[in-house]
TrEMBL record:
Family annotation (PANTHER family): IMPORTIN BETA
Name the UniProt record assigns to this protein: Importin-4
Record's signal peptide: none
Source organism per UniProt: Trachymyrmex cornetzi
Coiled-coil features, chain-numbered ranges: none
Localization of this protein: Cytoplasm; Nucleus
Main location: cytoplasm
Keywords: Cytoplasm, Nucleus, Protein transport, Repeat, Transport
Importin N-terminal domain boundaries: 19-103
Classification via InterPro entries: ARM-like, ARM-type_fold, IMB1_TNPO1-like_TPR, Importin-beta_N, Importin_beta, TPR_IPO4/5
Amino acid sequence: MERLLLNLLASDSATIQEATKELKKVLQNPDSVPVLCQLVVTSSNPEVRQYATLILRRRYTKGKYWTKLSIPVRTEFKKIILQALEHESANLVRNSIAQLIGVIVKHELPTNSWPEIIHYVQQLITNERLENKELGLYTLSIMTDVTPDAYTSHARSLVMLLAQTLSSLQSLGNPAAFYILETLRHLIPVAKHDETTLHTYATMMPLIMTTIQAFTETEHNNFAIQSFELLDELCENMIVVITPHVKSLVHMCLTIIANKSTDELLKVRVISFIGWLARLKKKALVKHKLVEPIVDMLFAVMMSKPEEDDDCSNTDNENTVLTSATQTLDLLAMHLPPEKLIPHLLRHIEPGLRSTDDYVKKTSYVVIAVLAEGCAEYIRSNYLEFFLRCICEGISYPSPVVRNAALYALGQYSEHLQPEISQYSSELLPVLFEYLGQICSYIKQEKKEPHAVGRMFYALEMFCENLNERILPYLPKLMERLFDILNADTSPHVKELTLSAVGAAACASEEHMLPYFETIINILNNYLTTEPSEENMCLQVQAVDTLGVVARSIGEKHFAPLAATSLDLGIKLLRNTVDPDLRKSLYGLFAAISTIMKKEMAVTLPEIVEYMIMSIRSADGILMHFKDDEANALTVYDDLSDTENEREDEEEDIECTDNEDDNDEEIDGYSVENAYMEEKEESVMALKEIAEHTEEAFMPYLERSFEEIFKLINYPQEDIRKASIEALLQFCINLSKINTDEGKKALLKALSMFIPKLSELIRLDEEPTVAICGLEAYQTLLRQVKSDVIAGIGHKEAIVNCVMDVMKDKTACQDQEEIEGIDIEAEQDGLLIECAGTVFSHLGRVLSAEDFALYFQTMLPFFLKRLKMDNSEAQRSFAVGTISECLSGLKHMTAAFVSQLLPTFLQTGAQDPCSEVRSNCFFGIGELALYGKEAVYPHYPNILQTLSCAIAKETDAAARDNVVGAIARLIITNYSNLPLEQVFPVFVEQLPLKADFLEHKAVFQSILTLYQAGVTLLQSYIHTLLKVAVIILHEEKALDVETQNLVMEFIKSVQRDFVNDWNALFTELPPEVVTNIQRIFS
C-alpha cells in the first residue's frame, strides 16, 4: 500500500496512472481500509501519511460508504485516527487528520455513536499544556466547519467552554485564540436560535475585540484578517450581538488603521468592515458621533500617495486600501442622511481643493465624485453650483492625477445629477473637446495609447449621453474627432472607447445623427463582418452595442431598412460564439431591434428565445474554490470511489443521496465570473423588452420565460434580481392583454406566484434597490393590471403589509434599531418610503372606497408623523403628497377625514418654508374639496382666505399652479358656494399654467362646468380663455388625452356659440399656430 501511495506522489504521469488503476483494485477489498488507517499512524513519510488521510476523507465524505463498513472496522478506524491525531508532529498531516475526524463526526454524532470524540476534544481544550489546548481547539474548529448542524445539542456547552478558555488564555495573540474565534464563527448557524448562547456571544464581544487587536500586534497578521469573517457573520446572522458594541468596534477599527505598521491587506479588511457597519448600523454611527472620525480616517487613507502612481480612481477590481476606502465612503453616502455626512467631508474637501499637494487635491475630487449617487438630491439643493465650479477647474488642472479624478467626478455627476449638469455644457464641452484633440494628436504622433484615456472617455460619454439637443452645436466637431481616432492606428482599447462615445453621441442627438449615419454603419460593419482576433474581440462586442444604441436613437423609419439585415447578422454571430460578452451585446441588439420590427420579429423568436433561456439556465462561469489546493487531487479521489460495484449501487438506490455532494467538504466557496452574470442579466432584460414590443408574437414563449426567470428571482447578484422582477412584471402585463378565459387563467396563475414573491423580496431583501424595484412593480401592476392584482387569496394583505413594514422601518434593508431622538433617513431610505406610499395610493384605484378607508385610517398616523416640521423637506412633501393622492381612492369616504386633514393642509400650505410641500398642500386642499363635497362646504371661506393669501405672496410657479388647481376643484364641486365675481378674474389671470401642466385638466373641467351651467360671468373672459386653450394645445401642455379632449371640447363649444370671438382670435394667431391647430382638429 505504501509503495502505491509513493507512486501516486511521483512526478511521472504514467506511473501515477498505473498506481491509480492498481489502487482502485486494492480499494475494492474492504480489508484495505484498516491498512490505510495503519499507514496514517505508522508510515515514516509525512506525504504518505497525508495522502492516506486524504484518500480516507474523500472515500467517506458520503455517509453511505461509511455505513457499509462493519461496526468493528468503524470502531477500530475511529480509535486509530484519534491516536494519529494525538501523536502526529507534522502540521499539514495533523490538519488533514482533523478534517478526516470532522467528516466521520458528521456521520456519527447524529446517532451519538462516537461520544468519546467530544469528550476527547474537551479534555484537550481544558488541558493545562498550551500544545494540547491548541490541538483540541484546532480539531474542534475543523469539526464544526465540516458539519455545524451536528452540534445543535452541544452548541450551548461548547460556546460556554470556548468563552471560559478564551478568558483563561495568558496570551490572546496565539493560534489557540484564533481557533476559538473560528469555532465561534462555525457555530453561528446553530447558536443564533438559542437565547442563552446569543447572550454568551454578546458577553464575549469585548474579549473578541481584544483578541483581534492582539493578533494585529503579533506575527499572526493573517489571524486578524480572518477573524473579521467572524464579525461579518455576526453582522449578517446575529446583529443583536453586534449592536451594543458598535462604538467599541469602530474605535478598534480606527486604532488598527492608525497603526503605521498595520499590513495593507488587514487595512483593506478593516475598512470594508466599517462599510458593513454603515449599511447595517447607521443609526448607531450617528448616535455615537462616529461619522466624523470615520470620515477623518477615510480622507487620511485616500490622500496618501500610492506606491504606483496610476489612475487614481480606476481601481474597481483592485484589492487596495484606496479602493476599499472609496467603496466604504460610497456606502456611507448611500446609507447616511447627507446632512450627517457632507458637512464633515467639506472640512476636508475645501482645504483639499486649495492644497498644492496633488494627492490631497485628487482625494477631494474623488470624494466629490463618490457622493454623487447617494446624496444627489441634497447636492442638487445645496452644493451643485459649488461642486460643479470645482469640477470645471479640476478638468483643466495641469497635473494628470488631479485632472483624472476631476474627470471621474464629471462622469459621476453626468450620470446622477441630470438635467442640471447639462446646463454647464458651454463650459465643459470645449475642455473635453480640447482633450479629445490632444488624444488624436498624441495617437498620430506616438502611435500608442495615452495614459488614463479611459477617464476622459468616461466623462465625455456620460456627459454627452444626456445632453439631448444641447449637443447639436458641438456635434460636427465631436464626430470629426471620433472618426479621426477610429481611422488612426491606435490600440483596440481606444477604438472600443471611441465606438462607445459614438453611441453616446447618437443617444443624445437622435435623428440629428443622420448626416453621419452611413459612415457609422460602414465602420460598424467592418467590425461586425470580419473575423476578430483575440485582441480585437472587444471591438466586435462594442460594435454590436453601438449598433443597438443607434437603432434605438436614429429614428424608427431611418433604421427600419437595416433592421432585418442587422437581425440576421446578429443571429449568425450568436450561432458562432461562446463568448459571454458578445452574447450579452447581441441580446441587447435584439431587444433594440424589437422596438423597430415589433411583431415582424416573430419568425426569428424561436431561435433567439432559446438562446436567451439557455443563458438564463446556464451555470457557465461558476468557479469552485477548493480548500487546501485540492482541486487537482479531487479527480484522483473520485476515480478511487468510482468502482463498478458502487456504480451499480448508485443505479439501484437512487434515493440514497444523503443530500450530500461528493465534493462539498473540499469546496471552500463559489464565485461567478462577471461576464457570465452580465450575460444572464442582459438575457432577462432583453426577453422583457422583446415581450413588450412583439406583444402577441411573444405569446408562445410567455409561460416558459416566466418559469425560467422566476427561478432567478432570488439570485445572489442584486442586478439579476432586479432584472427578473422587471421581466416578470412585463410578462404579467402581456398576459393581462389576452382577452380570453385562458389568458385570464394564465394571468392569475402568474400573479399567484409573483405577488407573494414580491412581498418576500420587499420585506427580506437586504438591498434597498431590490426592495424599491419590488414596490415599483406593485405600482405598475396596480396601475395597469388593476383589480386582478388583488383577486388572489392574501394578495391585498401582502401588499398592504409590505407598505406597513416599510413605514415602520421593519424591512431587512432598513436599520430597525430604535434609538430615541435619532430618526435618520438616507436618500435611498426616502425613496423606499416614497415608493411604498405610491403603492398605497394606487391601492385606492382597485379597492372599494369603504375597504380603502379602513386601510387609510391605519396608515394615516404614519403619514402625519412625517409632516412635522422637524422632519426633512422630502419627508414632509412625501407625507402631504401621498395623503392627497389617496383622496381619489377614498371617494365619498373622504368626508370622514376632512376635519382631521383640512386644518393641517391649510396651516402647512400657509406656513411651510418648502415650496414643494406648499404645492402639495394646495393640491390636497383641492382634492379634499372635490371628494369631501358637502363636508367641505362650510370651510370654503377659510379655504379661499388661504388660497387668496397664497396667490398674493407665492413665488414658486408650481405652487401657484396648484392654488389655481384648488380653485378649479372648488368651482367643479360647488361654484354657487363661491363669490365668483371676486374669484374668477384672479383665476383667469393665472392662466396658462407655468409649471404643473397636469393641473390643466382640473382648470378646463371647471371652465366647462361654468360654461355648461350658462354662468354669464364667463362671457367676459371667453376671448382670453380661448387664447389660453389654443396656446396649451399648440405648446403641447395638455399632458394626456383626457386633458386634450377637455380643451378641444371648450374650443369647439366656443366655435359653435361665440363665432365672432373665434374668428377674431383666429386672425390674431401666428401662421404656424393656425396650421398646427387646424392639424389637431382635423
